[in-house]
Amino acid sequence: MADRDLIERFLEMMAAERGVAGNTLLAYKSDLLSASDLANGQLAKADAAALTGLSANWRALANSSVARKASVLRRFFGFLHEEGLRADNPAAALPKPSQTRILPKILDKDEVDLLFKSIEARLQGPRPASADFRLAAFIELLYGSGLRASELVALPRNIIVSDKPFIIIKGKGAKERLIPVSNRARQAVADWLPFVPEKSRFLFPSRANHITRIRLYQIIKSLAAQSGLDPQKVSPHVLRHAFATHLLAGGANLRALQAMLGHADIATTQIYTHVDSSRLVELVNRRHPLATRTLTRRA
Questions:
Q1: Do both 148 and 68 map to the same domain?
Q2: Which of 172, 177, 213, 279 is catalytic?
Q3: Beta strands of 156-291 (E only): which ranges?
Q4: Residue 101: inside a domain, yes or no?
């Protein structure tokens, strides 16, 4: 069977059984087709020596890119082996470059306060516009619930109700998760709802569908500029990072934070522990059983 046919079967499996998102599948396909071209259309039949030669073409790439390509190929060869499409799995020959995890951009609490002060100034004006109420709902949900931009813009019109502090959404890979919605966020949405047409499917509609992520980014960056912050430093994703960072600093459990953010791997969530290492040390010194014991020294 040709490489392209096997790649399509692999992608179908990843979509159906693993729930991999569409954009991720496109990235997998691009990497696999590129590898197939390097292997002269014989990727599925490649042995360890062939994979070593293939990966030599990645020397000029960043470690993160090499790791991504190698990871996709490992999954592909694992699929071929499990399906009985080849007797062995040569993926051990693929490189495993060390990676430095990039720390997320974050806002401190004072910077977040500046955003909210700008919104409050708009809402306390003589005639606040509908866009001001929408902006308040945006920021309350991004910073107060840790939603992804794609999740926020596609929220159904009636998903948030006044007496329920949680919502259930489908995130990456169509995986459902429970999202906390603060009292402030529910109030902000309640204030915005009168401006949403009753026939709208979405909480944040546009003329044809729902507001786009690009438009959301533009709105957030405009708010940042008006608040005296560098627009390059503020985005919907940065507010999601701030949600995680400040929640962890407030004592949130790492596993609970993982569930709220929808991270498949807790290693992704652990990156937020860098932001408040001093507090983690303080927690150990105060909360650990040994914290109350006196070290006994010999005379």
A1: no
A2: 172
A3: 166-170, 176-180
A4: no
